[in-house]
Amino acid sequence: MATNRTNPGLFEIPHAAVYTLMTLTVLASGFCFIQAGGASAPAVLLFRYGGMYTAALARHEYWRLFAYGFLHVSFIHLATNMLCLVLWGGHLERRVGPAYFVIIYFCAMVFGAIVGNATHATPYLTVGASGATSGILGALLCLWILGKLDVRFDFFAINIGLNIALAISNSRIDWGVHLGGFAAGLIVCALLDLVEKLNAHLLRCRFPEAVKVNLALLAGVAAFFVWAAWAQNLAPSLPGWIVAAGFVVACCAVIKLVDLALSIRKGLAAVIIALACANAGSVALGGRALAAMSVCVARRPGGPAPLDNLLDAFCGNPVLVTALVAIGAAALTLLLCSKEIHRGIEDVGFVGSSLRAERNRRHGL
């Protein structure tokens, strides 16, 4: 994203990340509505599929920190949050790119759930993408403060004021999730700007967005596996900060290796193929971990038919199912990045040159 101010209109056409997140959210919420047989979902159904509740963190059900953001109580609840995602997300993704947009979105979702959990003194159940969409608004405010978004202050006064008024007027709105998501979006956006400025002097890397998005997803998967391994086997003997520092160093080494690969002729095509293989490997590791958790032995039938059917297929032959999904992940990566592969195959050195030129031009977000 350019460092000078740009003059956006009131509405920015959404891009790939916004469309993807909106599609996933509509599908997840719509699945609940179908199960409920109406335009709203009961609390018991929302709880089953991942609603955030009082004891979720105490019971180590961390997956709910993500799942709750894709579920909604009613069609109106869903439509309101998706409208905010479209109106605000188009502006943010255009200026920070899909990789950073997804990072900001999920950080706001998770931190919003954590703050919301801390503000509840009584048992509760919460769902909705409002924490994540509030994070988008917080990130836009950060860009405005940094001088990289040319909108009038009343844009934020109106939108923030409406959020506050709704939270005060409606007792069912979880204001802690809104506040936590907004703060996370602002802070994470500022940190990403700092990372980009440090990158200009330290790693000096610049990636195409497709590569950046894939690396961000792989880093998230790797962080989960490292954390799980540390929590189960190494927690008593190895301090967490050492593990975190080692993981950061390893990530920096991978980033620099990818940057070096992109600087050579046809390097972009080679990097995409390597990422496709890494995605397949991640799926294979996930399938192996799922099989090791004995979910097939301990599971109780009687849940939603599609999920039961998928689990039956996996439990019947976990190796075959995992292999097929891994191959599908690699094929999907190659399909989605077909333009980058074509560009890399025809590369005679211009890819690395363009990335170096962009690296020298940009400082910060």
Topology:
Layout: H1 16-36, H2 43-49, E1 52-53, H3 64-67, H4 75-119, E2 125-126, H5 130-145, H6 153-169, H7 175-199, H8 209-234, H9 240-262, H10 267-292, H11 295-298, H12 305-316, H13 318-336, H14 338-345, H15 350-361
Antiparallel strand pairs: 1-2
Helix pairs in contact: 1-4, 4-5, 4-7, 4-8, 5-7, 8-9, 8-10, 10-13, 10-14, 12-13
Structure overview:
The protein has a two-stranded antiparallel ribbon with strand order 1-2. The chain has 365 residues and is mainly alpha-helical. Helix content is 73%, strand content 1%. It is built from 15 helices and 2 strands. The chain has helices at 16-36, 43-49, 64-67, 75-119, 130-145, 153-169, 175-199, 209-234, 240-262, 267-292, 295-298, 305-316, 318-336, 338-345, 350-361, and strands at residues 52-53, 125-126. The longest helix is centred in the first third of the chain and has 45 residues, at 75-119. It is globular and about 60 Å long. The model is unreliable at 1-7 (pLDDT under 50). The protein has 2 domains: 1-199, Rhomboid-like fold, CATH 1.20.1540.10; 205-365, no CATH class.
List keywords for this structure.
single chain; disordered N terminus; Rhomboid-like fold; two-stranded antiparallel sheet; 365 residues; 15 helices; mainly alpha; 73% helix
Quick synopsis:
With 365 residues, the protein is an all-alpha fold. Helices cover 73% and strands 1% of the residues. Helix 4 crosses helix 5 and helix 8 (209-234) packs parallel to helix 10.
